[in-house]
Amino acid sequence: MRVIVIGGVAGGMSAATRLRRLDESAEIVVLEQGSYVSYANCGLPYYVGGEIEDRAELLLHTPESLTARFRLDVRTQHEAIAVDRAARRVEVMDHRSGVLVELEYDVLVLAAGASANPLSAADIPVHTLRTVDDVDAIDALLPRDGSATALVVGGGYIGIEATENLVRRGVPTTLVHRGPHVLATLDPELAVLVEAELRANGVELRTSTEIESVDRGEVRLSDGELLRPRLIVNASGATPNTGLARAAGLRLGANGGIAVDAQNRTSDPHVYAVGDGVEKIGLDGEDALVAMAGLANRHGRTAADVIAGRPERNSPALGTTVVRVFGLTAASLGWSEGRLQRAGRPYRAVHTHPMSHAAYFPGAERMALKLLIDPADDAILGAQAVGGAGVDKRIDVLAVAMAGGITASGLARLELAYAPQYGQAKDPINQLGYVADNVRTGTTATVQWHELPALQRDGAAVVDVRSDAERASGAIPGALGIPLDELRERLDELPDGPVVVYCQVGQRGHTAARLLVQHGVDARNLDGGYRTWSAGRAAELAASETMEAR
Amino acid sequence: MRVIVIGGVAGGMSAATRLRRLDESAEIVVLEQGSYVSYANCGLPYYVGGEIEDRAELLLHTPESLTARFRLDVRTQHEAIAVDRAARRVEVMDHRSGVLVELEYDVLVLAAGASANPLSAADIPVHTLRTVDDVDAIDALLPRDGSATALVVGGGYIGIEATENLVRRGVPTTLVHRGPHVLATLDPELAVLVEAELRANGVELRTSTEIESVDRGEVRLSDGELLRPRLIVNASGATPNTGLARAAGLRLGANGGIAVDAQNRTSDPHVYAVGDGVEKIGLDGEDALVAMAGLANRHGRTAADVIAGRPERNSPALGTTVVRVFGLTAASLGWSEGRLQRAGRPYRAVHTHPMSHAAYFPGAERMALKLLIDPADDAILGAQAVGGAGVDKRIDVLAVAMAGGITASGLARLELAYAPQYGQAKDPINQLGYVADNVRTGTTATVQWHELPALQRDGAAVVDVRSDAERASGAIPGALGIPLDELRERLDELPDGPVVVYCQVGQRGHTAARLLVQHGVDARNLDGGYRTWSAGRAAELAASETMEAR
Ligand SMILES: Cc1cc2nc3c(=O)[nH]c(=O)nc-3n(C[C@H](O)[C@H](O)[C@H](O)COP(=O)(O)OP(=O)(O)OC[C@H]3O[C@@H](n4cnc5c(N)ncnc54)[C@H](O)[C@@H]3O)c2cc1C
Ligand SMILES: Cc1cc2nc3c(=O)[nH]c(=O)nc-3n(C[C@H](O)[C@H](O)[C@H](O)COP(=O)(O)OP(=O)(O)OC[C@H]3O[C@@H](n4cnc5c(N)ncnc54)[C@H](O)[C@@H]3O)c2cc1C
Ligand SMILES: CC(C)(COP(=O)(O)OP(=O)(O)OC[C@H]1O[C@@H](n2cnc3c(N)ncnc32)[C@H](O)[C@@H]1OP(=O)(O)O)[C@@H](O)C(=O)NCCC(=O)NCCS
Ligand SMILES: CC(C)(COP(=O)(O)OP(=O)(O)OC[C@H]1O[C@@H](n2cnc3c(N)ncnc32)[C@H](O)[C@@H]1OP(=O)(O)O)[C@@H](O)C(=O)NCCC(=O)NCCS
């Protein structure tokens, strides 16, 4: 059996190595158009910034090491030009010799990844940040003395990583993002935390902004600003590499990626496809383009298993993601509130702001956590977190809970490891479960930050149950202040009619709402408290200001 | 309704506060024999060591703050002396006034915790480390100039925390542990990693050792050693406080804790019990004494829910635990291999030694991971981890997977958050799943470290597939060295008959085993590689040396 793999990095090489372990006798040829295989795509930005010092660290394997260990026939600078499915033949251009060769296969694995969406910027060098060659080029272009500036286009996670690393390298950097907020997997009230961190670290962030024109080294942005960057990094998104597949008549999916089944088989049973080039199984079984290293690696292994006759199958992709943004970590999985709204799907949202570990132990850091819940069955639909320590842990826990079918309320019962350095006796995840359960059971009705204006218009009073000192440092306009610990004694100060209570994060508000409801007041708690409300307001303001500036 | 809660810390106060939120009108009296309520038991050791500097940090609430917020009637220095169930009456000694009072209840909640097992040591002060008063006493006794030495009895997690903090305070400390290895929830080959860390930080660790006698300030250990400690900390285990319950004729469980149902109801429907004093639901539904803050807090809340007429129920306790040991983190959940063996229960074990995050990104730390699996249905039975960063995260993920019924092989499909600072494209948890799946499917048969001697006696050859350099720095006696990358070319050097291959952690061994099996060799892989084998051997040696020394 001869197996040809096109693309020699995450998905392709994972397929090749696993297949060798399963089948010592197969002939396995890996074609890679670039000069390197098995490199750490995800590490590339950090070599630009110098956090990864040794370039060799980026290269996990060489063709030689892969031959020695796995008897793979790895051919770099070999580009697959065309696939003849009828003849089961790949046409290959050897860029070293310039010779075109034809290779027959029994099984073909397409793992060609994705390419940056094109960005034409005339006379300033536009670079992508996707390959070792890319970082070499950026490295060569940029002095380390702060004399050059850069423009990064696209505030997704690659754009943010590029920005962070350019700043780290001493390059003043402007980050231009088309949408109103960076990191599309986050809802606005979490994305603004990331935006604040970018700005606090000197990034010139321009949201709702695009490049309008480039002329003789000068870039004009859609907000009128003029820049003269030495370098433009194009991180404006990527498109599946489907040229070969399309030309060969393979079926594509709803979003333009190669269509595959749960075993990574394409519409041709002799052809498999994995990685950024293919559609994944979405949360509802729909086609979904989720371009993540973990999925590419795992699905490469799935393809190998299936080729070797094993019954492996992929599960739906949650789209779990995490990115470091200077001192912050931002992570998410599943549906966002925005996506749920656009899909017209009912949901419940819960916001909390817990500490990463016991507040009494030094070093605890606060995070913002958000959970999205299916009101029909209490299932977890998605989650987001932005903060310091412990964010990645909580998102992982939620990803496993979601995969394991644990309900939102069921989070309360999870028995997570607790010592003061690591969590809390009631872990943030347990508390999330408590809050979700209180909403589910109607124990405390909540109001989302974006629902407050309408309620106020309808006559609801807003009561701030924080301390006077907290209120003095920022409050919701028009709120009546009665600290929680005085509430029982000051019930008569409340106006008639519905009341929305709030505190800093929602916790005292919950106790206040319980108290009031039992005293006959129609009280609801502002979910996530002042923190979520003010983040949501900041997000709205930022979006409307950039709209006005246009 | 009058509810009396006996014990005003983790379980008791959680019951009281939740009950207030559910029932504004109940009269809630909390009796606490000590001077403080709602203190951070788990933080106490770190105040001794100085990491928590401000004593006030230990006190989460005061009676006053609890009255203001929750209208609780909190009475400190009030000891419950007896319970008259027929009359629904508690006899209470007010230690401030010396007056005995009687209080009637509709519902009683027992949350009296546990007490240190007694340790009689004649004329040297013996302290426990369980209350604020305890740490005040230890603090007062110890100079900070290194002139006093201490002896800690018991190498469970409280004993280890006490030891770490005494060392941090500059007090040379001997830790005496009766069993062959510290931290009973860990199997020996993981416990030795903790023991090495203790020794590396200057702790005089004596395992398989007890106090034999104490005479005029001099302690004689069972190994003959003589010590003159200023302080003895008794951390030799704790026993549920069941005096009141027993005298009142409440049913006790198999391990001497108060018996309760899944709603924390005792054998008297008017009496609930929570926390360290009660039996939990074990992994197989059996009685189990699991004394953890998370369970105490959560079950306190359960009791409140049930008292208020809600349908809350507890799930079985996994016994998830974590402790910091100087630079290491040690964590575990569920069954250990030792416990499974003692129960005669079949299991599969998997050991790995992954990096906390991508090896190419600075700061990755290696951990030892162990998974225990039910061979009948691939269910996760337990897990252990010792290492640096990311240990708590992996144990939490495994705890959720176990709670969610995700199988060992299913770990391979979990979609965990990956960026190079946080994990790996194939996270350690995914790899654990792959290894488990390979064992389950017979893809690679493995050998446990403790099974090797018998196999060698039966004639199996041992082949070391690491590099020459690795082999030079320590290898299994009698092993034949053939580096993995040369294995295909040197097959003829292998002896006839069964072969056990090994590498450093098991990963190359797996590839080697796959290769050999397909070339007709009866090959198995040493699970966890040289690291696990040498840790296991060290554990055996340590245990047998202390046996010989006696
Ligand atoms: C800067 C950066 C940071 C990232 N960070 C993260 C992260 O933190 N976490 C995460 O989960 N994911 C991250 N990713 C995404 C992750 O790297 C991809 O999801 C993953 O590499 C996709 O694997 P793949 O095999 O589909 O494609 P790739 O790994 O991109 O490999 C495809 C290969 O195919 C080759 N190829 C294409 N066409 C041909 C042809 N015709 N003939 C021969 N060879 C061809 C390409 O040269 C390329 O080397 C990052 C990506 C980048 C670029
Ligand atoms: C030093 C130390 C470190 C710990 N670290 C951790 C950790 O890192 N992680 C973890 O999960 N767990 C830890 N624990 C365990 C955790 O603190 C307990 O599991 C938890 O506190 C048990 O709660 P409880 O309500 O049952 O008992 P407690 O919190 O101990 O409260 C019981 C209270 O009842 C009072 N009482 C007893 N009898 C009477 C009576 N007759 N009348 C009136 N009052 C009475 C006692 O004075 C006591 O204050 C630690 C414990 C200690 C001591
Ligand atoms: C590295 C690469 C070549 C794949 O090689 P690989 O050997 O299949 O993968 P890994 O090194 O992760 O090893 C996984 C194998 O080791 C096994 N393994 C891991 N730890 C083990 C242990 N302690 N004991 C036994 N086996 C172990 C796993 O079971 C798995 O084998 P299997 O697939 O047969 O079950 C490929 O992923 C690659 O090129 N990566 C670089 C690009 C990339 O991933 N980029 C995106 C992220 S930056
Ligand atoms: C602190 C203590 C008094 C309990 O007080 P508590 O108010 O019940 O508990 P918490 O402070 O954790 O708050 C939990 C409540 O806040 C709610 N909550 C938490 N975050 C919230 C948020 N962001 N929005 C809304 N509600 C929130 C939870 O739902 C829960 O309310 P519920 O039980 O009605 O559902 C008690 O646990 C105690 O005395 N602890 C100290 C001793 C101890 O635990 N020792 C061992 C560990 S060191």
From TrEMBL, chains A, B:
<dbReference type="InterPro" id="IPR016156">
    <property type="entry name" value="FAD/NAD-linked_Rdtase_dimer_sf"/>
</dbReference>
<dbReference type="InterPro" id="IPR036873">
    <property type="entry name" value="Rhodanese-like_dom_sf"/>
</dbReference>
<dbReference type="GO" id="GO:0016491">
    <property type="term" value="F:oxidoreductase activity"/>
</dbReference>
<dbReference type="InterPro" id="IPR050260">
    <property type="entry name" value="FAD-bd_OxRdtase"/>
</dbReference>
<comment type="similarity">
    <text>Belongs to the class-III pyridine nucleotide-disulfide oxidoreductase family.</text>
</comment>
<dbReference type="Pfam" id="PF07992">
    <property type="entry name" value="Pyr_redox_2"/>
</dbReference>
<keyword id="KW-0560">Oxidoreductase</keyword>
<keyword id="KW-0676">Redox-active center</keyword>
<keyword id="KW-0274">FAD</keyword>
<dbReference type="Pfam" id="PF00581">
    <property type="entry name" value="Rhodanese"/>
</dbReference>
<dbReference type="InterPro" id="IPR023753">
    <property type="entry name" value="FAD/NAD-binding_dom"/>
</dbReference>
<feature type="domain" description="Rhodanese">
    <location>
        <begin position="456"/>
        <end position="542"/>
    </location>
</feature>
<dbReference type="InterPro" id="IPR001763">
    <property type="entry name" value="Rhodanese-like_dom"/>
</dbReference>
<dbReference type="Pfam" id="PF02852">
    <property type="entry name" value="Pyr_redox_dim"/>
</dbReference>
<dbReference type="InterPro" id="IPR004099">
    <property type="entry name" value="Pyr_nucl-diS_OxRdtase_dimer"/>
</dbReference>
<protein>
    <submittedName>
        <fullName>CoA-disulfide reductase</fullName>
    </submittedName>
</protein>
<keyword id="KW-0285">Flavoprotein</keyword>
<dbReference type="InterPro" id="IPR036188">
    <property type="entry name" value="FAD/NAD-bd_sf"/>
</dbReference>
